[in-house]
Amino acid sequence: MASTAAALLAEAKKWLGYKEGARNHTKFGEWYAALVKDKSFAYAAWCDEYVSYCGHASGNADVVGQYAYCPSHVNFFKKRGQWHGANEAIKTGDIIFFDWDNDGIADHVEIARANAAVGANVRTIGGNTSAGTAGSQSNGDGVYERTRYRSDILGFGRPAYKSAPASTGTSGSKPPTNPTKTYKPPTFPKGLAPNKSTPSAKSLQKALKATGWMGKDVELADNYGPRTQKGVAGFNAKHGLNDHGKTYDPAIGPKGWALLFTLAYG
User: Fold this and answer.
1) Which residues contact 184 (CB under 8 A, 6 or more apart)?
2) Closest Cα to residue 72, out of 261, 201, 203?
3) Which of 71, 124, 150, 253 has the most CB atoms within 10 Å of its CB?
């Protein structure tokens, strides 16, 4: 399938009216869970999993990106010089990020289904949203076409679509059997543990901030203190990484370290 904006949009439209199952379970989450080898993502907030799946299934994975966390997806476009301001002209196939509470952090993502002039409202297709304004816009129940206000947009990425056939991705709904990984997390550091001081604690804190598990206002420090422990414990619990059935586990392990950095920077 050709790697084009039209192909992405065609795939996105296939899923209009799709509804999530119990506890946010979706086909897109199942696909992403297989991609990162973490079953918890099958039940995660899925707006970005939907966009990423459409990118994969339409042969656009390399230019759209594959993410479950919107801020990391924003960084994907920024690193490639493909990030655009909220009020710029939008093209069909642009990946649009929304900031509902105006804190500068992406809360939701959708695909532009039509061009939009500078400052004009934008027609989109998005997952994990609601059919109208009455429901949650970033934790809804399905895939819908929407018209969005510019005031809600944080910015958008413009993938470098190609005209040549892509070598990856299918138009079906099954997960890839051998997903390509483009990011390798740093090696798990020795001596990183709660209540210990090591320079690697700062790297851990940066990744926690990037994934929303630590407040942006927390000062970086070599100390693996209470705030770092709280962020790690939440992350571990969310992804089923608690050691030996612990209900509160503030220690990051090699598996958690790799997943955390992949979500933050992959």
Assistant:
1) none
2) 261
3) 124
pLDDT in tens, 115-136: 999 989 999 999 999 999 888 8
First to last CA, the chain: 25
- Note the pLDDT tens digit of each residue in 29-69: 999 999 988 898 999 999 999 999 999 999 999 999 999 99
Amino acid type, 27: K
- The C-alpha atoms of residue 259 and residue 100 are separated, in whole angstroms, by 27
Q: Read off φ and ψ for residue 155, nearest 5 degrees.
A: 165, -175
∠ CA(102), CA(232), CA(266), 5° rounding?
A: 65
pTM: 0.65
> Using an 8 Å Cβ cutoff, are 205 and 220 in contact?
yes
Helix (H) or strand (E) holding 28: helix 27-36
Architecture, CATH, for domain 5-157: Alpha-Beta Complex (3.90)
Query: What's 189's DSSP letter?
Result: P
> What is the domain partition of the chain in residue ranges?
5-157, 200-265
User: Cα(151)–Cα(143) distance, rounded to whole angstroms?
Assistant: 22
Q: What CATH code is assigned to 200-265?
A: 1.10.101
State the residue for tokens 């990020």.
97
The token duo for 92 is 């069909």
State the pLDDT at residue 79. Answer: 92
Strands across the sheet with 122-129, in order?
A: 83-85, 153-157, 95-98, 108-112, 122-129, 142-148
